[in-house]
TrEMBL record:
Species, as recorded: Actinomycetospora rhizophila
Subcellular location: Cell membrane
Composition skew (Acidic residues), residue ranges: 11-26
Keyword Ribonucleoprotein listed: no
Region span, Disordered: 1-26
Name used for this protein in its record: Bifunctional lysylphosphatidylglycerol flippase/synthetase MprF
UniProt key word Transcription: no
Residue ranges of every copy of the Phosphatidylglycerol lysyltransferase C-terminal domain listed in the record: 393-690
Amino acid sequence: MTATAPPEPTDPVDQELTESTGDEAGDERLAAVRARAAGIARWRPVTTVTTLLMLVGGIATGAFWTPLAERSWASAVATGVPALAEGHWWTPLSAALVGAHPVGALLGLLLAVVGLGWAEGRLGSGRTAVVLVVAQLAAVLVALGIVVALAATGWVWAVGLAGALTGGLSTGVLAVLAVASATLGAPWRLRLRLALVGVALVGLLFLGHLADTAHTLALAVALPLGHRIAGAGAAPSGRPGRREWRLVAAAGLVAIAVIRVLTLLVPVAGPLGDTASDSTPVETLVSVVISLLLAAGLRRGRRLAWLAGLVLGGFYLLVGLFVIGVVIWAQLTGQMDQVELVGLAVFVPNAVLWSALLVWLVAGRHAFAVPSRRRLRRRGGGAATGPEVARDALHRHGGSTLSWMTTWPENRYLEHADGVTAYRVHAGVAVALGDPIVAPADRTAALEDFRALAERSGWVPCLFSTTEALADAARADGWRSLQVAEDTLIDLEGLEFKGKPWQNVRSAFNRAGKAGISHRMVHLAEEPRAIVAQVRAISEEWVGDKGLPEMGFTLGGVEEALDPEVRTGLAVDAEGTVHGVTSWLPVYGPDDVVVGWTLDVMRRRQEGFRAVVEYLIASACLTFQAEGARFLSLSGAPLARAGDEVEGEHVLDRVLDRMGELLEPYYGFRSLHTFKAKFQPRYAPMFLVYRDEADLPRVGIGIGRAYLPDARVRDLVALVRS
């Protein structure tokens, strides 16, 4: 099954797939609109005027080659508490056009040209100018007020800032970038925001300049309000996918390691004192190695690395709170001179960074469920087996069109005498995925093993998306069943795309040829990094812009496509740009023979060739037909079925139908089902097998949580209210 939306032009999720209307005039109109937009974007008056003013200010004051602090008239240009105390009220404005230090002045100019220019193209000149001026003045003035208040307490850092001057426009530019981030699609929106927060937080904790304080204040306001300020240009808000949770966690650990090295090699005076610590190079090296090893594990979603990160994050949080408590106690009791503060300026900021990482790991815990490859795990009272056991069973016995999904690492496994059942546990419900992977004669015994496991563990058992043969065997053994989806199968023998029913497919081939796009069926893990990166970007663009979190269970992604036994179809143009991607899961018959392929990932680049998905599926049909496969499965869209209400329709049928209706604007399952009908498939029913009717309420909740394991209550409430 695929987690992509269908290509109907009126569908709310049309960003995901494509339509085969043959309307080349529409493409030309779209290209003309983009060309006009590009022409307008070249002229950025706010960026141009700001850059010219900064050049004039830097040259006139010599800020590009001499620190302003060396000039006797510095307080008349740069701003700070001394400048305002001298009555130089204009300095918050003039200081924005000069840098306090040559390095800062040059970097500020570069930031204005690149960052402000990009943001103005996203927000427009009016919004950019307002945010730039208001954020710069407000954040700097508030920061000065905070410094004055803290200096009254005798805090050495605040006292030092109260006598310092600052300059530069970085505060306003960062605020503009924060607002402009709301116009980006996933995953770049989250990445830019985290980068901005990281710059401000690290600067405040380890450097503590007046500008760092202003940066933090500006971002604290601009980021939450960015979506509203951006107006109609704001992109839909979404949540990170599994890979994004992993990448951010890994990047955070790498950043912590780099900061640890820098504070050892280049100590500076921060808010808590000198960042030079008494750590030896060996201690620092050990800490860095541990951080990098954990980062590698988190990037792969390893559960063990996640647990280790929780332990270290919790340790730093507790010790950080203890140190802060000791300092506060010493201040209140007047014994500050007896407290050893060596390393405080490094340890407490590191504790803050580790605490932020801890929060991220807890919030994204669902993304770190990949078990260790080196040992088997015992879970849920059943035999602990890894995906390799499911693979071996598939090679021996074969399976259904969904059986390859049992090899995905989030599954648990119950091992039988000769085979395995893959399942997950949600809300006290053990949801088996498809048929048990056993010989046909062993189906009844496998069902009894699964029921016994559930009863021992206090779970409600059910099997989701089984074949009709398994449902028949289960009913004979006292189970109940009902149809929940339909598999869409394309028989490849004698398939030719001829006649009126295949007009859309032929149009897709023609348009691909005109656009210079070719089809490649590859093993994604063997492709160059540039290709894999494009595939990830296409996938994350779709995942991150959904109103609900990324779905799972029978819906795979790029990580699953990297499996060496999975095939990936790519639509690539002459320049090497990937316009669309499909992934195909092997369907094994007995004796280790691949008899068919099941479609999983189906996504396209938003700006790419519009009929790319029809082209990819049709090309895959021809490729696998030539290799001797008997059929392709376009899989069954979750919570979607063809046809009208049937006699004896069950309560759970209506519940699942209603859930499908609610999720349609976000994931487009039903329109997807309609889209697949273009390929003239035959349908095979897919069933839910359950124990008795009393279990159905919990079964419905368990299946919902299996697809949306990390959905929050407010997500579901918002879904129902919509």
